[in-house]
Amino acid sequence: MEVTIVGAGLVGCLLACYLARRGHHVTLYERRPDPRERGPDRGRSINLAISQRGIDALRRLGLDGKVLHAALPMAGRMMHAPDGALTFQPYSADRSQAINSIGRADLNRELLEAASAQPGVEVRFGCRLTGLDERTGRLRFESGEEAAAGVVIGADGAHSAVRARLQQLPGVSFSQEYLDYGYKELSIPAGNGEFVMDPGALHIWPRGRSMMIALPNPDRSFTCTLFWPHDTLAALDTPQRIRAYFAEHYPDAFGLMPDLVADYRGNPVGHLVTMRCSPWHVRAGDAVVGLVGDAAHAIVPFYGQGANCGFEDCVELDRCLDEAGDDFPRALELFERRKADTDVIARLALDNFVEMRDKVGSRLFLAGKRVEHALERALPGYVSRYELVSFSTTPYSRVERRVAWQRRIVGAAGAALVALVFAARRGRGLVRGPEGD
Amino acid sequence: MEVTIVGAGLVGCLLACYLARRGHHVTLYERRPDPRERGPDRGRSINLAISQRGIDALRRLGLDGKVLHAALPMAGRMMHAPDGALTFQPYSADRSQAINSIGRADLNRELLEAASAQPGVEVRFGCRLTGLDERTGRLRFESGEEAAAGVVIGADGAHSAVRARLQQLPGVSFSQEYLDYGYKELSIPAGNGEFVMDPGALHIWPRGRSMMIALPNPDRSFTCTLFWPHDTLAALDTPQRIRAYFAEHYPDAFGLMPDLVADYRGNPVGHLVTMRCSPWHVRAGDAVVGLVGDAAHAIVPFYGQGANCGFEDCVELDRCLDEAGDDFPRALELFERRKADTDVIARLALDNFVEMRDKVGSRLFLAGKRVEHALERALPGYVSRYELVSFSTTPYSRVERRVAWQRRIVGAAGAALVALVFAARRGRGLVRGPEGD
């Protein structure tokens, strides 16, 4: 088949590899210039945390080795209290599992190379989509260039131009939901050529209503991201205010940020949005148009699953093509079932923001996590939600069913334990039964 | 102030009247030609049911008399069972209250006349908005014409072009939610110059998963609307199938529809959508852009409140302008509080579809309505939700609080009554107490 993919970002490139392996001819249209010929975009969503779902999707194409070679494993969260005290919380009970910090630009270049190297894949840069006729698969680009394909797949991100067209069709439900928070990137450079904090952790400064995180880079710097209410971001409007605020709320990081004021004033404020769409594909006339990745289901970054989920979309669509014998309209129809999973991770990502910015700073929460890890060691088969999401490829919706089931089991076991203790004490005369009242 | 209103539909025209009364200069841009110079649009959302909120908004401008003169009051629902049996259910306990059937085109012409008659109001037809710069209030139309205003208000309906621009701005949350149902209009003509059914009722043929309704017109015809699942609408693809289906499921109406097959095949299928947006206004640079009516909060038609709610928007915005001393940015900020009310009616309208198509056909439901009307007669101050929505101007969100409060009171009274009866019977030895078990 002739397949057009709009967007040569992470998901578009990986999907092109999967489709080329099936023998399809793929043309990738990307609105930006070739990233291999330009510098990286500073200040916007630099780091990703690749975990099991992403690794699995890369491994099926033999791309995992090269990608992970450049990545930095983070085995847990390092919480920074306002007084500078550090607490490490491992992601897994045996501390063996890690999520992997990687730069978006590096990963994109790697996947672009992989896609370009496939026979049957062509990549066209500088092509911004301005028109799409879903009945004919005809595409029009800003340059005046036109194209047509029986199969058009939008992998063009949260603000997808392909989805913008589908949204105009009656029957296509859609929502975009912004948080009242913005994000801004800052930097902690290397000191004397070395990391100035532990590079084996994802660093979090939980501050109740807001937070900062930091992920390590191969050049031994850290990329920090503030997730703050818009009004807080806007309130720091002078170098004095910026320095005073960081000195008060992030004292240990403040000393490690020589470029704080320039970064704060120079880097843009990003927005945090959840996009939902249904259906993800429209079949009309001779053409079928579908969506994958953020174009179908953009989520907030707080579970580190945006790219992982998009990569898993490629695996799932590949599976649907198997099932449909490479009939794309049928495969895209089967692919709609994945919405049950992406709806779950969208919700978990929103919930995790509250956990990261607020709860991880609480002793009770950390004690709960220790109990959970103890349960994992004690009960074979008990696995935390975080591990099921990050270190397995269990579908997200099954993760939620399993977590609910585990809670019931543990709850029942706990109740039985309490009853046993009660019975034992009563047997020893320590508790008087109701007949004695 | 110079105010631009995009859309000269029902809400745009009424708002122009309200703003002109305050002394503002208003230009109304409408994409369609002047409806006074063209015939009515057949087959799409012909009839409205104007009730208290709409009447109140018209009355404040002295427009109620002329509008209601042309309307037909409907004092209740007439249910048509599959065997042709009729059941009348009044909307109010004393049968004195009615909603008013009126043609959208007639009402629009009336309001257009009223707006055009105001000094300071100009109406421009054939102007389709193609560009809007929210920072300058500059508008561009398909014709090439340009305009600018410090205040731009989108009253351009569910598929608002003004909102389409606001949706592109970061921070503007939005959703469009389609039902899996379509609607299609049919007709029951007059017979020998007379109504062939009772014109004092809104007729409903509840059929579980689907329904038909009919509203009377001044020419003594009825406009019928099917609300059917899309697959049912599509399945009747031959004259034989259409006739057979209606003969089976709507036998009494079938005999009154000589043009059934032509209407069914000729009229388009409409879609049912709920649109939500937040915020409704954006202030940027020197300009402010806001939304009212369906552009801000399109709802499904099942509570008969779409136009009433849009008219009430005008009253509320007028009130906000009072409060803000005609400072539009401030008034539009105050107007955001109305979202609490429009969110409620959006939900009630969705819920009422289930009630109309399914529950009104059940004896238990009708018995419940009779009990409710008995309560209204017996308890001073008890008013049903339907009456509060349709026959009062109590804000929708307060309707919901009051309904919840009434339910608690009646529940508590009911429980007390049961306890009293129980105690009385037990006192007479008819019930044995637990001590006798």
UniProtKB/TrEMBL annotation, chains A, B:
The keyword Ion transport does not apply. One of its GO terms (biological process) is pyridine nucleotide biosynthetic process. Its cofactor is FAD. It catalyses: L-kynurenine + NADPH + O2 + H(+) = 3-hydroxy-L-kynurenine + NADP(+) + H2O. Signal peptide: none annotated. GO terms for molecular function: FAD binding; kynurenine 3-monooxygenase activity. SUPFAM superfamilies: FAD/NAD(P)-binding domain. Residues 2-321 form the FAD-binding domain. It holds the Pfam family FAD_binding_3. Its EC number is 1.14.13.9. It comes from the Bacteria. InterPro entries: FAD-bd, FAD/NAD-bd_sf, Kynurenine_monooxygenase. Keywords: FAD, Flavoprotein, Monooxygenase, NADP, Oxidoreductase, Pyridine nucleotide biosynthesis. The keyword Phosphoprotein does not apply. Pathway: Cofactor biosynthesis; NAD(+) biosynthesis; quinolinate from L-kynurenine: step 1/3. Transmembrane segments: none annotated. Belongs to the aromatic-ring hydroxylase family. KMO subfamily. Catalyzes the hydroxylation of L-kynurenine (L-Kyn) to form 3-hydroxy-L-kynurenine (L-3OHKyn). Required for synthesis of quinolinic acid. PANTHER family: KYNURENINE 3-MONOOXYGENASE. This is Kynurenine 3-monooxygenase. It comes from Nonomuraea thailandensis. The gene is kmo.
